[in-house]
Amino acid sequence: MSSSSSAQYALERSIAISAVERACSLTDKVFRNLVTADTVTKKDKSPVTVGDYSAQAVVNAILGSHFPEDPIVGEEDSKDLQKPESEALRKQIFGLANEALKNSAQECPAVAEAESKPSTQALGDRELTEKELLAAIDRGSAEGGAEGRCWALDPIDGTKGFLRGGQYAVCLAFMVDGLVQVGVMGCPNLPHDASSAKPKEGEFGAGEKRSDLGTLFIAVRGQGAFQRPIQGGKEEKITMRQISSLSEASFCESVEAGHSSHGTNARIAELLGITAPSVRMDSQAKYASISRGDGDVYLRLPVGDGSYQEKIWDHASGSLLVEEAGGKVSDIRGKSLNFGVGRTLRENRGVVASRKEVHSKVIDAVRKALEEEGRGHL
Ligand SMILES: Nc1ncnc2c1ncn2[C@@H]1O[C@H](COP(=O)(O)O)[C@@H](OP(=O)(O)O)[C@H]1O
Ligand SMILES: [Mg+2]
Ligand SMILES: [Mg+2]
Ligand SMILES: [Mg+2]
């Protein structure tokens, strides 16, 4: 196989971009119409439920029409949605997903081009039935594995961030024989330029969205990592920041202490001489941020007894972005992430991502900090 030809996986790349774009405009709309100060106060998660299901339906329907044989490992399934009491929810998702499938075909040059190819079946000519919609969601139930083509989808990654008005991402990756080849990530609330002010969290409901928010990240193995405004525009190449010493680095970590141990991170920073405060954000936007140099090290340390198995859709697209931007991604022991063993990364514990040159130093500090806590066995 000629690995560096820019034509390699060009179709998968353009279909993935269009699917993620459509899903992002849908989730953005769901946020603006359904997340209100009231739903947030009541800790009502229904907006994210609507967004999750309809975004998965849209992406899977698009993948299904272009690559009908390809298995998809998606986070959601329609089991709860099929219950009689979910009828109103089903109707809402049905409307949103069909609208997204219909509207965007003309607006998105990548999909217009791909869909004009005779081999593909045009979407959006007619509405999907409710049955087809549920089937599209359940197309995501593949088991994954080390053989052949496979997609991994997180329709809304960072569900907590979505509800806060903070960072979340639509993440889609294409894998061959367990290796990620294409990663596309849409971050509707991430500024194009990291130096511009961060969006204020908790600004719910209607109102004009800032025009500098919404960034799309794209990576193909061997072809580099790129970003562009999600609304369209020129792709620019991104690379991780050059730092001469780890003491200049800053960490990027989860907002949720339950997803990554903040206390241990602080000790690792101390061991490495890092003084800059950690940047905390939800979702795989962390991988995207370090890929373009907003931060330098993404640490995700196991919490508790370390038995949690990371899900492949939480890391597939982000890890390729970092690798293509000059970084290295491994688990806390320095072992490569193995995306070919099923729906989870069961052979790995936690994640460490940084520039290649400093990666082993970070791994050493992680080991030392865990040993000090009596968790060296993790
Ligand atoms: N105990 C745990 N440890 C690590 N990750 C967890 C976890 N419980 C849930 N997660 C995952 O963490 C993801 C969010 O990561 P982050 O905290 O970096 O934003 C969630 O994705 P979803 O939001 O798609 O469900 C979920 O899959
Ligand atoms: Mg997720
Ligand atoms: Mg999710
Ligand atoms: Mg989830």
TrEMBL record:
Listed A to Z, the keywords are:
Hydrolase, Magnesium, Metal-binding
Q: Enumerate the InterPro entries for this protein.
A: DPNP, Inositol_monoP_metal-BS, Inositol_monoP_superfamily, Inositol_monophosphatase-like, Inositol_monophosphatase_CS
Q: Does the keyword Nucleotide-binding apply?
A: no
Binding of Mg(2+), residues: 75, 154, 156-157, 314
**Its Enzyme Commission number?**
3.1.3.7
Q: What Gene3D superfamilies does the annotation carry?
A: 3.40.190.80, Fructose-1,6-Bisphosphatase, subunit A, domain 1 (3.30.540.10)
Catalytic reaction equation(s):
adenosine 2',5'-bisphosphate + H2O = AMP + phosphate; 3'-phosphoadenylyl sulfate + H2O = adenosine 5'-phosphosulfate + phosphate; adenosine 3',5'-bisphosphate + H2O = AMP + phosphate
Say which enzyme class the record assigns. Answer: hydrolase
A single GO molecular function term of this UniProt record = metal ion binding
Cited Pfam families: Inositol_P
Give the highest taxon in the source lineage.
Eukaryota
- Obligatory cofactor(s): Mg(2+)
- GO BP annotation list: phosphatidylinositol phosphate biosynthetic process; sulfate assimilation; tRNA decay
Please give the PANTHER family that the UniProt record associates with this protein.
3'(2'),5'-BISPHOSPHATE NUCLEOTIDASE, PHOSPHATASE
Homology family:
Belongs to the inositol monophosphatase superfamily.
**Name of this protein:** 3'(2'),5'-bisphosphate nucleotidase
UniProt source species: Kalmanozyma brasiliensis (strain GHG001)
Lineage of this protein's species? Answer: Eukaryota, Fungi, Dikarya, Basidiomycota, Ustilaginomycotina
